[in-house]
């Protein structure tokens, strides 16, 4: 017996979601763990939507996220598909390499520990 996923009707696209891959999540969760150990962050949320994957970081569970790490594959050829966005919606860093983009948060960890 063969099981196949349903094919979309002509003109429709399959339900696609953007998601973080394992190496990307490894980088993000490594940074997250260091901030949790420093007592700065307490909770996170992951959203996988049609056009964007978002890793939201919270200081407390009931608040708005203080940072969002976004992956937008459509921007791969332009500014870069990764971005770190602050609480007020300001883009803190955007680029093609996730490790470089997360560097803007690494600097905040150095200040928090001192």
Order of helices and strands: HEEEEEH
Which strand order does the major sheet show?
Answer: 1-2-3-4-5
The total tally of domains equals: 1
| DSSP E strands, number | 5
Radius of gyration: 17 Å
Mean pLDDT, to the nearest integer, reads: 81
- Strand residue percentage: 15-25%
For the report, how would you describe the main beta sheet? 5 strands, antiparallel
- Residue stretches low in confidence (pLDDT < 50, at least 5 long) are none
Helical fraction equals 25-40%
Q: What's the total helix number?
A: 2
Assign the structural class, choosing from mainly alpha, mainly beta, alpha/beta, alpha+beta, or little secondary structure: alpha+beta
Cα shape? globular
User: Span from first to last CA?
Assistant: 62 Å
Brief overview, please?
The chain is of the alpha+beta class.
Describe the model.
By secondary structure, the protein is α+β, with helices and mostly antiparallel strands. The chain has one domain (22-113). Helices cover 28% and strands 24% of the residues. It contains two helices and five strands, in the order H-E-E-E-E-E-H. The chain has helices at 22-37, 98-113, and strands at residues 43-48, 53-58, 67-71, 82-86, 91-95. The protein has a five-stranded antiparallel β-sheet. A hairpin with a 4-residue loop joins strand 1 (43-48) and strand 2. Helix 1 runs parallel beside helix 2 (98-113). The radius of gyration is 17 Å and the shape is globular. The termini are far apart. The mean pLDDT is 81.
């Amino acid at each position: 017996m063969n099981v196949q996923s349903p094919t979309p009707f002509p003109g429709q696209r399959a339900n696609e979601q953007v998601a973080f891959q394992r190496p990307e999540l490894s980088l993000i969760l490594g940074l997250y763990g260091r901030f949790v150990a420093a007592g700065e962050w307490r909770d996170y949320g992951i959203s996988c939507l049609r056009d964007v994957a978002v890793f939201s970081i919270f200081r407390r569970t009931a608040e708005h996220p203080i940072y969002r790490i976004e992956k937008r594959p459509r921007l791969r050829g332009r500014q870069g598909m990764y971005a770190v966005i602050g609480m007020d919606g300001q883009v803190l860093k955007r680029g093609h390499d996730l490790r470089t983009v997360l560097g803007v948060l690494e600097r905040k960890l150095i200040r928090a520990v001192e």
